[in-house]
Amino acid sequence: MSIFDFKESASYKINEHLYNVQKEFIVLGLCGKVGSGVSEVAEILELPFEEFHLPQPGFQGDDSYDAHEYRILYTYAKRNWKEIYKIRTSSLITRHILKESEEEMCKFLEWITSDNDNQKDDGKDKYLNLVKSFFDCEMSFSIEEYDKVYSESKNSFLANEPWKVISEEISTQVNKFTDYSRSEDTNISEKKCFDLTLDDDFNKKIQFCYNAKERRYYISNKNLSNLLDFYEKRRREKSGFKNQFWYLILKQYLYDFLPQESSKFWGAVGDSVRIRALQYLGNNLRIAKKPFFLNDNFMMDGYTCLAEDINLAIKVLRAYKLAIGSFEGARFYSPMNSNDNPYTIVVIDSIKNPYESMYLRQRYANYYLIGIYTEEEHRRARLRKKEHLTDDVIDVIDIIENNSDLKKKLLKNSKESYNVENDFIKKIYDQINEYKLLESLRYISSFIFQNVPGCLETADILINNKPDNSSYIYLKKILLRYVCLIMNPAIVLPTKIERCMQIAYTAKLNSGCISRQVGAALTDQDYHLLSIGWNQQPEGQLPCAYRDLCELYHHWSPNDYSDYENNDDSEFQRNIKKQVESLFDTTSSPLENLGKLPSYCFKDYYNSIQNEKNQVHTRSLHAEETAFLNVGVNKVHVQNGILFTTSSPCELCSKKAMYLGVSKIYYVQSYNAISREHVIGIGRCGKRPQLVLFTGALGTAYTKLYTPLLPKKDEQEMWLTAKMDIHLMDNIKPNGLGNSKKLVASEGDDSNVSS
Q: What is the pLDDT of residue 150?
């Protein structure tokens, strides 16, 4: 077999199919705080690889480890990088206002920008023209333009009578219109409109307009939104469009027109209003699937509303990819034929709630959530410079993005005198209070509010977006690495920092803490493991996850609880009894019905009784503490060592790290304490531990990205072998190996490959 016959071999085709399946469909979610650089990352990923403008790798003279990795990644990406489509969550949120009236949107903007409720009606026409313009703006398209983009000269879209594509599902009136649209008569009025009935069961019609001189069609924003609603309805019925031309329209709408028009609209409204309005609209959608909270019905599945929109946008893109193939005369996608492969890769800008990410993770095997961090001072500097936001406005935005902080503010004001210090948070409080959600807010807030810290905790890949040059070279190299790894797992090996943090991440799973699991790993200066640790109770004591209120109440296992807890005469025990009796006073107790016992945290119960927030009452040693204790008391072992922790150390653990001479601390989550400024930020600069935000893959993503699909030796042999009898291909069916004869194993392989 000549070298040109390689692609005809069965081994080559199977290998190609294996890797095509891996990279044909990829969903990348982005999360991060406002100003962390999420949008910049999305914009970079949209670029063709040639426009990354990365430096050419050197093939001679540079034999460093990093140089070898870069050559591998660059070479692979140059040949395999595919177009990545961006889904903007902000535009999907904005689309929901098209389902309501222009007047309601104007009222909303006036309300959200007013200082108090008394000013709600002042200047009520302020946004009228702006809103009307957004509702009525039109997307235009031309059949001839689609033909140039999607068709080959010998198999022209126009040659297949494209006018019938539009007229298949329309009335006689529209058939007449298509005849009119072909006409060259210049005396005909420039623009004519007609109604298109998409389905007999669909009571809304889609209005089109046609400009005879321009030979262009026009559809308003409102009507395009109706078209998308119809497609969603068809999908729920396990159906779709009979006429695949509509997928071209919807793809252009969701990925080009709607994002552009949404940006123009919010740009005219103003940046500070845009951020707050989108936050508020998103919360309302998660509560009631309504942008303005027009009804008082709490929707159980409201928290998936935006995730469902993202999923719909992905389905449109996938259908569009398949439709293109049919327009070009190709058959629908067959994995065995790479020429038909409609690669679909999307990046979502951005995800603000972890349950939205969970929704997508449950549906897509090749879904990855990428968390974008940046140091706080850099983030705020970007917002001041780029968005022209004041520190006060940034503080409010941060509270809204942090479910825990917002919940505390709202619950505080529900218990004490009405004293919300910020007008925007006051508006959220009023809405939540009006719709009687304050009582359950403690439990449902994580589903209905933004929760960026929660998203970052569940991220598969974390990127420290540290200050870079104007070309974003550092950031582009990081993105290059992980996109290539997703497309081709194990193309490079884990970094030593990833390896050590993965150990800390795995260690945290041993924690029995019911509040927060934390893991730590301690290495020497060469990244050799010294010890691991996790937040846990002292040796011989029962973890909190196994302790429950009923057991304490009945004294079933007194040795597992302290003398203080077992004292029936104490205020603490009396409160425990009240809790248990309230939980199990009826047979309809949710926990009892589910067969679950009520775990409890001593610290939380004690602090609630004493009205304190003291961390000293925790039963557990911190993860960093256990790692230090496990390595022994000899400081020599740890001197200049490196600490990896899934949460930045508190003041107590920071002091221990300083005492032992730790030189670097890599962390994932930032702990709200003064350890950085007060404990680590002291002494000569050369002796201070360096705090570094972690960049890399964690958890299951680490395993997925660094586990090869095939052993590299086997893969290479399959790509390169030319010893297979070419005549075997005559017996290989398009959809599998079918009745093929026994395949001959390559030399040196004592295994047999059978049909």
A: 56
**Can you tell me the distance from the alpha carbon of 621 to that of 209, in angstroms, rounded to the nearest whole number?**
70
Burial, 475: exposed, middle or buried (Cβ in 10 Å; 0-12, 13-18, 19+)? Answer: buried
For residue 568, give every residue at least 6 positions away whose Cβ sits within 8 Å of its Cβ, in sequence order, or none: none
Tell me the C-alpha distance between 334 and 338, whole Å: 8
Q: Which residues pair with 599 in a beta bridge?
A: 548
Q: Provide the domain count of the chain.
A: 2
C-alpha distances in Å from residue 222, one per residue of 135, 267, 348: 6, 20, 23
Per-residue pLDDT of 159-174, as tens digits, reads 444 445 454 444 344 4
Query: Helices 391-401 and 403-415: crossing angle, nearest 10°?
Result: 90
Contact 643, 657 (CB under 8 A): yes
Q: Are the beta carbons of 371 and 456 closer than 8 angstroms?
A: yes
The whole-angstrom distance between residue 665's C-alpha and the CA centroid of its chain comes to: 27
CA distance 100 to 103: 8
CA 126 → CA 107, 112, 118, 269, 279, distances in Å? 10, 13, 16, 10, 21
Task: Tell me the β-bridge partners of 644.
Answer: 521, 666
Q: Do the domain assignments include residue 679?
A: yes
**pLDDT at 727 exceeding the cut of 60:** no
Do residues 637 and 696 share a domain? yes
Alpha-carbon radius of gyration of the chain: 30
Residues 9 and 1: their CA atoms lie apart, in Å, by: 9
Residues contacting 152, CB < 8 A, separation 6+? 328
Give the number of other Cβ atoms within 10 Å of residue 608's Cβ. 11
CB of 138 within 8 A of CB of 221?
A: yes
- Residues 6+ away with beta carbon under 8 Å from 381: none
Say if residue 638 is in the same domain as residue 627. yes
> Among 115-129, 324-338, 384-398, 450-464, where is mean pLDDT lowest?
324-338
User: Cis omega before residue 350 (within 30°)?
Assistant: yes
Q: How far apart are CA 281 and CA 274, in angstroms?
A: 10
Residues 672 and 530 in one domain: yes
Do residues 641 and 428 make contact, with C-beta atoms less than 8 angstroms apart?
no
Mapping DSSP onto H, E and C, the string for 36-73 reads: CCHHHHHHHHHCCHHHHCCCCCCCCCCCCHHHHHHHHH
The reply to whether 696 and 628 lie within a common domain is yes
Q: Which domain holds residue 574?
A: 544-617
Q: Which two tokens stand for residue 53?
A: 């403008």
687 and 630 in one domain? yes
DSSP, residue by residue, 336-347: T-GGG---EEEE
Give 600's DSSP letter: -
Q: 56: Cβ–Cβ under 8 A, 6 or more apart, which residues?
A: 74
Tell me which H or E stretch contains 647: strand 642-647
One-letter amino acid identity for 552?
Answer: L
- 700 and 634 within one domain: yes
User: Using CB atoms within 10 A of its CB, is residue 603 exposed (0-12), middle (13-18) or buried (19+)?
Assistant: buried
Please compute the mean of the pLDDT values over residues 176-202 and round it to a whole number. Answer: 57
Q: Tell me the whole-structure pTM to 2 decimals.
A: 0.82
d(Cα 68, Cα 73) in Å, to the nearest integer?
A: 9
